[in-house]
Predict the structure.
Amino acid sequence: MAITLTESAAKQIQCQLAKRGKGIALRIGVKKVGCSGLAHTFDYADEIRANDHMFESHDARVVVDADSLSFLDGSRIDFVTEGLKQMFKFDNPNVESECGCGESFNVKAKAEAAKA
C-alpha cells in the first residue's frame, strides 16, 4: 500500500506546515458526501494515531487513517494551479466515476470490498 507525492505537492505541504509553525504531515482521508458518495479530506497532522499509516515523498509526509487507506491506496497527489485556483489534485486509481461538479467520487468494487 502506498501514496506518493509529486515534488510540487511536497513543497506545498512543507510550506504550509512551516507557515503554520507546527505539524508533522498533511492528513488526508475520505468522507461520505455529495452526489457520488465520497470526497477527499485534508487537515494537518500534529501526531500519529494508532490506526494511521504514514507515507513520505520528497521530504514531505502524508498521514492516512486505516479506514480511508483502501480508498486512497496507489494515489499520487499533485499540487496544481488551474487559472486562479490552486489545489491538491489526486490521481486515484480506485476512482470509478466522479460527479459532474468534481466534488465527490465513487470507488471501484475492490476498494469498497477492502473496506468491508
